[in-house]
Request: fold
Amino acid sequence: MKALMAAPMEPAGLSPADLEPIFREHHAMVFRAAYRITGNPTDAEDVLQTVFLRMLKRDPGAEPVGNMPSFLHRSAVNAALDLVRSRQNIRSVPLDELEPVLADPAYRRPDRVHGSGEIREWLRGAMARLNPRIAQMFILRFFEGKENPEIARLLNTTPGTVAVTLSRTRDRLEKEYRAYLGGVA
Reply:
Protein backbone atom coordinates (compact mmCIF):
# COMPACT_ATOMS: atom_id res chain seq x y z
CA MET A 1 0.00 0.00 0.00
CA LYS A 2 1.41 3.39 -0.99
CA ALA A 3 1.79 6.00 1.70
CA LEU A 4 -0.30 9.08 1.03
CA MET A 5 1.73 12.24 0.69
CA ALA A 6 0.30 15.25 2.44
CA ALA A 7 -0.38 18.28 0.29
CA PRO A 8 1.95 21.18 1.04
CA MET A 9 0.48 23.58 3.55
CA GLU A 10 0.64 27.31 2.91
CA PRO A 11 1.32 29.34 6.03
CA ALA A 12 -1.46 31.56 7.32
CA GLY A 13 0.47 34.83 7.23
CA LEU A 14 1.99 35.53 3.82
CA SER A 15 4.23 38.35 2.71
CA PRO A 16 3.54 40.06 -0.63
CA ALA A 17 6.52 38.18 -2.10
CA ASP A 18 5.11 34.85 -0.87
CA LEU A 19 1.67 35.69 -2.23
CA GLU A 20 2.84 36.64 -5.74
CA PRO A 21 3.35 33.09 -7.07
CA ILE A 22 0.02 32.03 -5.56
CA PHE A 23 -1.66 35.00 -7.27
CA ARG A 24 0.00 34.24 -10.62
CA GLU A 25 -1.11 30.60 -10.48
CA HIS A 26 -4.68 31.10 -9.27
CA HIS A 27 -5.89 34.60 -10.18
CA ALA A 28 -7.70 33.47 -13.36
CA MET A 29 -9.65 30.79 -11.47
CA VAL A 30 -10.63 33.28 -8.75
CA PHE A 31 -11.74 35.81 -11.36
CA ARG A 32 -13.82 33.20 -13.26
CA ALA A 33 -15.54 32.02 -10.09
CA ALA A 34 -16.38 35.60 -9.13
CA TYR A 35 -17.51 36.53 -12.66
CA ARG A 36 -19.87 33.55 -12.84
CA ILE A 37 -21.63 34.82 -9.75
CA THR A 38 -21.53 38.58 -10.26
CA GLY A 39 -21.90 38.60 -14.05
CA ASN A 40 -19.83 41.75 -14.15
CA PRO A 41 -16.08 41.97 -14.87
CA THR A 42 -15.63 45.03 -12.65
CA ASP A 43 -17.28 43.28 -9.70
CA ALA A 44 -15.23 40.14 -10.41
CA GLU A 45 -12.05 42.25 -10.29
CA ASP A 46 -13.19 43.69 -6.96
CA VAL A 47 -13.73 40.17 -5.63
CA LEU A 48 -10.32 39.08 -6.95
CA GLN A 49 -8.68 41.97 -5.15
CA THR A 50 -10.65 41.28 -1.96
CA VAL A 51 -9.67 37.60 -1.89
CA PHE A 52 -5.95 38.26 -2.23
CA LEU A 53 -5.96 41.23 0.15
CA ARG A 54 -7.63 39.00 2.73
CA MET A 55 -4.84 36.47 2.19
CA LEU A 56 -2.30 39.18 3.05
CA LYS A 57 -4.26 40.23 6.13
CA ARG A 58 -4.78 36.70 7.47
CA ASP A 59 -3.77 36.22 11.06
CA PRO A 60 -0.33 34.56 11.15
CA GLY A 61 -1.70 32.27 13.85
CA ALA A 62 -4.55 31.02 11.64
CA GLU A 63 -4.58 27.42 10.44
CA PRO A 64 -2.40 26.90 7.36
CA VAL A 65 -4.11 26.40 4.00
CA GLY A 66 -3.83 22.79 2.83
CA ASN A 67 -5.61 23.00 -0.53
CA MET A 68 -4.96 26.44 -1.98
CA PRO A 69 -7.16 26.12 -5.13
CA SER A 70 -10.13 24.97 -3.05
CA PHE A 71 -9.52 27.66 -0.42
CA LEU A 72 -9.30 30.42 -3.04
CA HIS A 73 -12.35 29.19 -4.97
CA ARG A 74 -14.40 29.07 -1.77
CA SER A 75 -13.14 32.54 -0.83
CA ALA A 76 -14.07 33.89 -4.28
CA VAL A 77 -17.56 32.38 -4.13
CA ASN A 78 -18.15 33.74 -0.64
CA ALA A 79 -16.86 37.23 -1.49
CA ALA A 80 -18.91 37.33 -4.72
CA LEU A 81 -22.05 36.19 -2.91
CA ASP A 82 -21.47 38.87 -0.26
CA LEU A 83 -21.17 41.47 -3.01
CA VAL A 84 -24.35 40.30 -4.75
CA ARG A 85 -26.24 40.23 -1.45
CA SER A 86 -25.14 43.74 -0.63
CA ARG A 87 -26.29 45.11 -3.99
CA GLN A 88 -29.66 43.47 -4.48
CA ASN A 89 -33.14 43.58 -3.18
CA ILE A 90 -33.64 39.89 -3.55
CA ARG A 91 -36.80 38.65 -5.24
CA SER A 92 -37.94 35.15 -5.15
CA VAL A 93 -37.14 31.69 -9.98
CA PRO A 94 -37.38 26.30 -13.20
CA LEU A 95 -33.76 25.32 -13.47
CA ASP A 96 -34.68 23.32 -16.52
CA GLU A 97 -35.35 26.67 -18.15
CA LEU A 98 -32.16 28.23 -16.77
CA GLU A 99 -29.61 25.69 -18.01
CA PRO A 100 -30.27 26.29 -21.73
CA VAL A 101 -30.22 30.05 -21.21
CA LEU A 102 -26.94 29.93 -19.33
CA ALA A 103 -25.44 27.80 -22.10
CA ASP A 104 -26.71 30.03 -24.93
CA PRO A 105 -24.05 31.65 -27.08
CA ALA A 106 -23.69 35.42 -27.11
CA TYR A 107 -25.29 35.66 -30.56
CA ARG A 108 -28.64 34.18 -29.47
CA ARG A 109 -31.93 35.56 -30.78
CA PRO A 110 -32.82 39.12 -29.67
CA ASP A 111 -36.20 38.05 -28.27
CA ARG A 112 -34.39 35.85 -25.73
CA VAL A 113 -31.76 38.38 -24.69
CA HIS A 114 -34.06 40.37 -22.40
CA GLY A 115 -35.57 37.28 -20.77
CA SER A 116 -32.21 35.63 -20.21
CA GLY A 117 -30.91 38.79 -18.53
CA GLU A 118 -33.81 38.71 -16.09
CA ILE A 119 -33.24 35.02 -15.43
CA ARG A 120 -29.54 35.60 -14.83
CA GLU A 121 -30.36 38.36 -12.34
CA TRP A 122 -32.85 36.11 -10.59
CA LEU A 123 -30.27 33.31 -10.44
CA ARG A 124 -27.65 35.63 -8.94
CA GLY A 125 -30.16 36.60 -6.25
CA ALA A 126 -31.03 32.95 -5.65
CA MET A 127 -27.35 32.07 -5.24
CA ALA A 128 -27.00 34.92 -2.75
CA ARG A 129 -29.83 33.47 -0.66
CA LEU A 130 -28.19 30.05 -0.42
CA ASN A 131 -25.80 28.93 2.27
CA PRO A 132 -22.32 29.71 0.85
CA ARG A 133 -21.20 26.05 0.90
CA ILE A 134 -24.36 24.96 -0.93
CA ALA A 135 -23.96 27.82 -3.41
CA GLN A 136 -20.39 26.74 -4.03
CA MET A 137 -21.51 23.15 -4.75
CA PHE A 138 -24.20 24.41 -7.11
CA ILE A 139 -21.81 26.75 -8.93
CA LEU A 140 -19.14 24.06 -9.29
CA ARG A 141 -21.69 21.63 -10.74
CA PHE A 142 -23.94 23.76 -12.92
CA PHE A 143 -21.73 26.71 -13.86
CA GLU A 144 -18.31 25.05 -14.00
CA GLY A 145 -19.42 21.55 -15.05
CA LYS A 146 -17.54 19.69 -12.34
CA GLU A 147 -18.68 16.15 -11.51
CA ASN A 148 -19.88 15.20 -8.03
CA PRO A 149 -16.73 13.25 -7.03
CA GLU A 150 -14.53 16.22 -7.94
CA ILE A 151 -16.80 18.61 -6.02
CA ALA A 152 -16.68 16.27 -3.03
CA ARG A 153 -12.88 16.24 -3.15
CA LEU A 154 -12.67 20.03 -3.43
CA LEU A 155 -15.07 20.56 -0.53
CA ASN A 156 -13.84 17.68 1.62
CA THR A 157 -17.13 15.78 1.68
CA THR A 158 -18.62 12.69 0.05
CA PRO A 159 -20.08 12.41 -3.47
CA GLY A 160 -23.35 11.24 -1.88
CA THR A 161 -23.59 14.40 0.20
CA VAL A 162 -22.94 16.48 -2.91
CA ALA A 163 -25.61 14.60 -4.89
CA VAL A 164 -28.26 14.96 -2.18
CA THR A 165 -27.42 18.63 -1.59
CA LEU A 166 -27.58 19.44 -5.30
CA SER A 167 -30.86 17.59 -5.75
CA ARG A 168 -32.49 19.41 -2.84
CA THR A 169 -31.10 22.75 -3.98
CA ARG A 170 -32.32 22.22 -7.53
CA ASP A 171 -35.81 21.35 -6.23
CA ARG A 172 -35.81 24.43 -4.01
CA LEU A 173 -34.71 26.75 -6.82
CA GLU A 174 -37.26 25.31 -9.23
CA LYS A 175 -40.00 25.97 -6.69
CA GLU A 176 -38.75 29.54 -6.12
CA TYR A 177 -38.58 30.14 -9.87
CA ARG A 178 -42.17 29.00 -10.36
CA ALA A 179 -43.19 31.44 -7.60
CA TYR A 180 -41.17 34.17 -9.31
CA LEU A 181 -43.06 33.54 -12.55
CA GLY A 182 -46.35 33.79 -10.67
CA GLY A 183 -47.11 30.10 -10.71
CA VAL A 184 -48.03 27.84 -7.87
CA ALA A 185 -45.08 27.37 -5.55
